[in-house]
Design brief:
- By secondary structure, the protein is an alpha/beta fold.
- The protein has eight helices and nine strands.
- The strands form two sheets. A seven-stranded mixed sheet has the order 3-2-1-4-7-5-8, with helices on both faces.
- The longest helix has 18 residues, at 131-148.
- It is globular, with a radius of gyration of 17 Å.
- It starts with 5 loop residues before the first strand and ends in a 12-residue tail after the last helix.
- 43% of the residues are buried.
């Protein structure tokens, strides 16, 4: 089917201003990449715009969900759809150009099971962030690393590439977290199952247009969920650190 192709899962909610630009930019980054837009019934008409893009290009598909349930739920629905379609590699990224589509070939260019676009390895960084946001992001990753005992430097990032065998093995049906915690949990599950996880540098730029989806609830969830991950089903049993 699509074993030799990759699918970018692109969750959207009120991204009308970004979708007509980000989807073509993703498609232009690599010939083997397709796009699955997962729209949570955006009231601004994002879903209808995505349908127009899909009608013009067979490499674009749209999954419409009936309501907004959070980033993690949207990704899980998109992963299930991409797995069913037979894709060999499945990627996730933001729809607001915070993640540069030009870096997609880098995520596809290793033999790792999971490739993380990392802000906190040599060559990575952030642009147009205030001190508070930098402290929150870096502190969140340090907090999760300390509790979980892993070597990954950017646990909260959302620019990733998974080989299908990883998503098939990590029991997606039991994932309950969203937001930052969702990103931490998927990487943690992959590491615990012995998959090879590597980080490649990216520069994360603040969104061009639209409103951030960050909230206090998302941060609070990450704070307590990492402890649940740490002690769930035997804690660190089976943990292997990435190279």
């Amino acid at each position: 089917m699509n074993e030799g192709r990759a699918c970018v899962v692109l969750p959207t909610y009120n991204e009308r201003e970004n979708v007509p630009q980000i989807v073509p930019a993703i498609l232009a980054s690599a010939a083997e990449i397709d796009v699955l837009v997962v729209d949570d019934s955006s009231p601004d008409g994002t879903g209808a715009l995505a349908d127009e893009l899909a009608a013009r290009d067979r490499r674009v598909r749209v999954l419409h969900r009936p309501r907004k349930e959070g980033l993690g739920r949207a990704y899980l629905a998109g992963f299930a759809n991409a797995l069913a379609a037979g894709y060999g590699r499945i990627l996730e990224m933001d729809a607001d150009f915070s993640h540069d589509p030009a870096r997609l070939p880098v995520l596809l260019g290793t033999d790792a099971d999971v490739v993380l676009g990392s802000r906190y390895v040599a060559g990575g960084g952030t642009v147009n962030w205030g001190l508070g946001r930098r402290m929150l992001s870096k502190g969140g990753s340090l907090y999760a690393r300390a509790i979980l005992g892993v070597a990954v430097r950017d646990l909260t990032g959302g620019f990733k590439c998974f080989r299908r065998r990883v998503l098939e093995a990590v029991d997606l049906g039991s994932v309950r977290s969203n937001g930052y915690a969702f990103q931490i949990e998927l990487t943690w599950r992959a590491i615990r199952r012995g998959f090879k996880v590597v980080e490649v540098p990216i520069v994360f730029a603040d969104r061009r247009v639209g409103k951030s989806k960050m909230s206090r609830g998302i941060v609070a969830e990450a704070l307590w969920m990492v402890w649940k991950m740490r002690f769930d089903r035997g804690g660190r049993a089976g943990l292997t650190a990435p190279p």
